[in-house]
Amino acid sequence: MASLEKSDALLEEEQLLICRAQGGDRQAFAVLVERHWDRLYRWLYHLTHDRHTAEDLTQESLLKAFANLARFRTPNNFHAWLFRIAYNCFVNQWRSPTRARQPFPENLQAPGEGPVEQVLSREALQMLARAVGRLPADFRAAFLLRVDEQLSFQEIAEVLGIREETARWRFFKARQKLMNVLAPQLNREEV
Amino acid sequence: MNCEVVKRRLLAISKSNGLPAELRTHLAYCGSCRAWRRRLLQLEQHVSSLPVPRSRGKSRFLRDFLREPGQVRKVPDGIAAVNSEAAAPAPAGPPGRFRLVLSRTMQSRPMVGSLAGIAALLLIAFSAYELRTRTGEPQSSSSESISEPLLAELVERDVRLSSADTPAERVAILADIADVLARDLAPLAHADAHEDLSTLARLYVNVVRSGLLHQARALRETERLPVLGPIADRLKEVANTAERLAQQSPVEQVQPLLDIVAVARQGSSELRALWEEQS
Predict the structure, then answer these.
(1) Distance between A5 CA and the closest CA of chain B, angstroms
(2) For residue B129, how many C-alpha atoms fall within 13 Å in the half-sphere facing its CB?
(3) Phi, psi of B148, deg, nearest 5
(4) Residues 41-60 of A with CB under 8 A from B
(5) Using the beta-carbon criterion (under 8 Å), do A41 and B58 form an inter-chain contact?
């Protein structure tokens, strides 16, 4: 209950920030950037596999959001709206003939030895990262929006510009592919 | 209900609670499906801990965003730009190496039709950058002399580009931008400035490929003849210069120069083909 109230308060505060930013208040928009940058960057990194490209796209998305803030009408869905802009930026970059294809980075370090890493071995985490990284980009985008960003299928559909049924199907296929690849490894981990 | 059907249905349900009764019944007696479902949930729990390199861009972005008083504005035909005030050199800090602050156009809708190329073009705003001061390195005179005039010229053209109405105007301004960028190749090729040269090369490639060539194709046939020939010649000159520099420069400077050679050659021959098509 407490966390629900907190999240309501955050949402209300965010709506206030959006209103102020719509009036040209850059400080207010900076607070929104501070809140959303990491999530946006993380998702874009998973899509692009390149830190510089992900940072560039994050920056571009936020600037576009600022430029088009006057058109934004549903303040409780700012997060999804940002992701929608980011996805358009990603698609434009993806279609660009000058895009350098990024292989999945093999040498990424897992983040520390927290409780999560103790549950799943470093090797399994790397396998998971590789398997997610090798999903087709459309499936990966939908899967991560659902699992990492906790968006509803309707929001995912809006972000990706597809029908809700297609969003569900992509999520299903992504899960299926991951389980096909990873279930044997997870079996071994359990033994 | 057999196990394969159960698994497919479990894949389609993303919440851990709220399983339909028939699935709950199956899971109650089928250990294999229970284990399979546990793995599925386990897998997804770990997605949030997948490694991602730390982003270093946020604080820089915020600093630049808050420092620039101007507004990002959208111009009528889908091209958006920063205004001259926003794109002006940052007042604080000594002049130094330049850095891309706001890259790409900020178009508000997916790129379509003849605007696709121009919308993909970088709109350029450089700011003075105190990197060397921060890292304690002395500033080289070459970097000082390069950054500020280049910045001023790019900003001036950037503003003109944002208000250009016709492909012919855009072609002229974009060719001008390409020239301004190419003029700084030699000092950067010989300096210890790999990052700056790479940035310059990236800009040049985008200006030519996504901007100039695209707009040139949109020219009316009667406009092509007087405009494209001289620009094709200038691009060819840049290709030759960059190639010569690549032969003389340190090895780490070669790739950005070769990128410029390739795009300038491609641009020159495409423009010439368009021009000859007309003549």
Answers:
(1) 22
(2) 20
(3) -70, -50
(4) 41-42, 45-46, 51, 54-56, 58-60
(5) yes
**B2 interface with A at CB cutoff 8 Å:** no
**Contact indicator for B203, B181 with CB cutoff of 8 Å:** yes
Is the CB of A187 less than 8 angstroms away from the CB of B56?
no
Q: Does B59 touch chain A (CB under 8 A)?
A: no
When CB atoms are compared, the residue of A24, A42, A60 closest to B52 is A42
Same domain? For B71 and B204 the reply is yes
Q: Say if B51 falls within a structural domain.
A: no
SS3 content of chain A, % helix, strand, coil (to 5): 75, 0, 25
* ipTM score above 0.85: no
The residue segments making up the domain with residue B201 are 57-278
Give B185-226 pLDDT, tens digit per residue: 888 887 777 778 888 888 888 889 888 888 888 888 777 877
Going from the N-terminus, what domains does chain A have, and what CATH number goes with each?
1-96 (1.10.1740.10), 115-191 (1.10.10.10)
Three-state DSSP class for residue A136: coil
**Residues facing residue B82 across a β-bridge:** B72
Q: Where are the alpha helices (DSSP H) in B94-193?
A: 115-120, 131-135, 141-163, 167-183, 185-190
- Note whether B15 contacts A: Cβ–Cβ < 8 A: no
B154 and B269 within one domain = yes
The closest CB to that of B14, out of A34, A119, A171, belongs to: A171
Same domain, B154 and B204: yes
pTM (2 decimals)? 0.53
Counting the structural domains of chain B, the total is 2
Residue B258: HSE in the Cβ half-sphere, 13 Å Cα cutoff: 9
Q: Which of the four pLDDT bands, split at 50, 70 and 90, describes residue B87?
A: very low
pLDDT tens digits along B242-272 = 988 888 888 778 888 999 999 999 999 998 8
The residue written with tokens 């869905």 in the block is A77
From the list A175, A154, A171, the residue with the least C-alpha distance to A163 is: A154
Q: Which residues of chain B are within 8 Å of residue A144 when distances are taken between CB atoms?
A: 47
* Cβ pair B52, A50 in contact under 8 A: no
